[in-house]
Amino acid sequence: MSGSGGTGADTAKNAAAAPAPGLVNVANVLTIVRILLVPVFVVCLFAGGTGWRLVALAVFCVASLTDLLDGKLARSRGLVTARVVESAGADLVARA
Question: What is the average pLDDT across 78-85?
Fold first, then answer.
């Protein structure tokens, strides 16, 4: 008997038992954040004044960064779900 702890078969069983990515994952949370930032952006944009427009620019930049991170995380972690339309919709709304 060796003291290595487990066999290759045990490791394969544990890997097969790992849960598939669910709907609540980092990429989807970033998509929801991006959707929620749209009304904040619109309010800041139409509030008037240079200060509010700079805040709107900052909100837009944050939304753009969430789009970038969302895509990178989804690809790197294999988080492709049936809800790809939500991400595309959030992209369109954020860029409108």
Answer: 58
pTM over 0.70? The answer is no
Angle at 82 (CA atoms; ends 24, 23), nearest 5 degrees: 10
Kindly state the average pLDDT of the residues 73-89: 65
Of 74, 60, 61, which Cα lies nearest the Cα of 30?
Answer: 74
Question: What single string gives the DSSP state of each residue in 34-62?
Answer: HHHHHHHHHHHHHS-SHHHHHHHHHHHHH
CA–CA separation, 21 and 82 (whole Å):
12
Cβ-Cβ contacts under 8 Å for 89 (sequence gap 6 or more): 35
Q: What percent of the chain has pLDDT over 70?
A: 57
